[in-house]
Amino acid sequence: MIHTFIVTGMTCGHCEKAVTRALKQLDSLAEVTIDRSANKVDVQSDQARALLSQAIAEEGYVVAA
Questions:
Q1: Which among 16, 21, 25, 54 has most CB atoms closer than 10 A?
Q2: pTM
Protein backbone atom coordinates (compact mmCIF):
# COMPACT_ATOMS: atom_id res chain seq x y z
CA MET A 1 0.00 0.00 0.00
CA ILE A 2 1.25 3.49 -0.82
CA HIS A 3 0.75 6.21 1.79
CA THR A 4 1.23 9.88 0.89
CA PHE A 5 2.05 12.43 3.58
CA ILE A 6 2.44 16.19 3.46
CA VAL A 7 5.45 16.91 5.68
CA THR A 8 6.68 20.39 6.51
CA GLY A 9 10.06 21.28 7.91
CA MET A 10 12.22 19.24 5.53
CA THR A 11 14.76 21.74 4.25
CA CYS A 12 17.77 19.70 3.15
CA GLY A 13 19.12 16.31 2.21
CA HIS A 14 19.83 15.54 5.86
CA CYS A 15 16.12 16.00 6.59
CA GLU A 16 15.23 13.55 3.83
CA LYS A 17 17.70 11.02 5.20
CA ALA A 18 16.28 11.39 8.72
CA VAL A 19 12.73 10.79 7.52
CA THR A 20 13.80 7.85 5.35
CA ARG A 21 15.80 6.30 8.20
CA ALA A 22 12.87 6.63 10.63
CA LEU A 23 10.48 4.96 8.19
CA LYS A 24 12.94 2.17 7.37
CA GLN A 25 13.45 1.48 11.08
CA LEU A 26 9.72 0.85 11.29
CA ASP A 27 9.63 -1.19 8.06
CA SER A 28 12.97 -2.20 6.55
CA LEU A 29 11.21 -3.12 3.28
CA ALA A 30 9.50 0.25 2.90
CA GLU A 31 10.07 2.17 -0.30
CA VAL A 32 10.34 5.88 0.46
CA THR A 33 10.14 8.65 -2.13
CA ILE A 34 10.50 12.25 -1.01
CA ASP A 35 9.75 15.39 -3.01
CA ARG A 36 11.08 18.07 -0.68
CA SER A 37 9.98 20.97 -2.90
CA ALA A 38 6.37 19.71 -2.70
CA ASN A 39 6.66 18.67 0.98
CA LYS A 40 5.51 15.22 -0.09
CA VAL A 41 6.57 11.84 1.25
CA ASP A 42 5.32 8.66 -0.43
CA VAL A 43 5.81 5.44 1.49
CA GLN A 44 5.09 1.99 0.12
CA SER A 45 4.62 -0.13 3.23
CA ASP A 46 2.27 -2.60 4.89
CA GLN A 47 2.58 -0.73 8.19
CA ALA A 48 -0.39 1.24 9.52
CA ARG A 49 -0.59 4.82 8.28
CA ALA A 50 -0.70 6.13 11.85
CA LEU A 51 2.57 4.37 12.72
CA LEU A 52 4.30 5.76 9.64
CA SER A 53 3.05 9.26 10.44
CA GLN A 54 4.22 8.92 14.03
CA ALA A 55 7.71 7.84 12.89
CA ILE A 56 8.00 11.01 10.79
CA ALA A 57 6.67 13.23 13.59
CA GLU A 58 9.12 11.73 16.08
CA GLU A 59 11.94 13.04 13.88
CA GLY A 60 10.59 16.55 14.49
CA TYR A 61 8.62 17.16 11.31
CA VAL A 62 5.00 18.24 11.02
CA VAL A 63 2.79 15.73 9.21
CA ALA A 64 -0.29 17.42 7.77
CA ALA A 65 -1.85 14.55 5.86
A1: 16
A2: 0.93
